[in-house]
Amino acid sequence: MLADRNAELRTLSEQLKLQTVTDALTQVANRRALDAELSKEVARSDRYKTKLSMVMIDLDHFKDLNDLHGHPAGDEVLKSVACILERHKRKGDFVARYGGEEFAVLLPHANAEDAAAWAERARVSLTASSIETNAGTLSVTASFGVATFGPNQATPESITAAADRALYLAKDAGRNQVYPPPSVPNLS
User: Fold this and answer.
1) Residue 14 annotated to the active site
2) Which of 101, 120, 132, 157 is an active site residue?
3) Mean pLDDT to the nearest integer, 172-182
4) For residues 126-152, average pLDDT
5) Which site in 41, 70, 113, 118 is 20 to 30 Å from 137, CA atoms measured?
6) What's the CA gap between 61 and 89, in Å, rounded?
């Protein structure tokens, strides 16, 4: 009886721990988990002398989608985008909901060109997707900002800021694109 109760408590404790690091809507990691993982990956990059890339993703005109089709449809879009990003990640990559309609992906061991190529593949896949919602089939686009740092060059704050700057450059250049594009050197 006591052993059963202890096992039940362990299970509940594990479920509670998982809830604290998982976005309830999209079922990918949340911002808290991203912050912790980013700190670990920056330290790992420094220790093993490897590159670390971060991709920030913002859904284009998401407020308009919510206003036109309603928040339940917007929620379905967010869930679908999370699934698309999860499908495209490599083993060891980390997908998180950054907040609102923004996502972040950590790409350990990815140089600037590889990270931009990954982002472009994810962008093309997202753009080509038809998302079924209660308001009908919807299509969305997103802007992607890529930042890459070498060992002993980044802090969690600097890589996040660089990826965010790149994201805004993608939005300023017309949205639905990756900045820097795969053929342009990373300006982080």
Assistant:
1) no
2) 101
3) 94
4) 96
5) 118
6) 24
Q: Cβ of 66: how many Cβ atoms within 10 Å? A: 16
Cβ contact 58:177 at 8 Å: no
Contact (CB, 8 A) for 116 and 20: no
Q: Name every residue whose Cβ is closer than 8 Å to that of residue 95 and which is 6 or more positions away in sequence.
A: 28, 29, 82, 85, 86, 89, 103, 104, 105
Residue 55 reports pLDDT greater than 70? yes
Single-letter amino acid code for the residue at 160 = T
Query: What is the pLDDT, as a whole number, of residue 168?
Result: 97
Q: Which helix (H) or strand (E) holds 144?
A: strand 142-149
Per-residue confidence (pLDDT) for residue 178, from 0 to 100: 97
CATH architecture assignment, domain 25-179: 2-Layer Sandwich (3.30)
SS3 108: strand
Which of 76, 94, 61, 92 minimizes the C-alpha distance to 26? 76
d(CA 75, CA 93): 24
Q: Is the pLDDT of residue 186 over 60?
A: no
Domain residue limits, the chain: 25-179
Q: The pTM is what? A: 0.88
Residue-level pLDDT at 22: 94
User: Could you give the CA distance from residue 73 to residue 69 in angstroms, rounded to a whole number?
Assistant: 6
In 3D space, the residue among 148, 88, 87 whose CA is nearest the CA of residue 114 turns out to be 148
188 has pLDDT over 80: no
CA gap 144, 104 in Å, rounded: 9
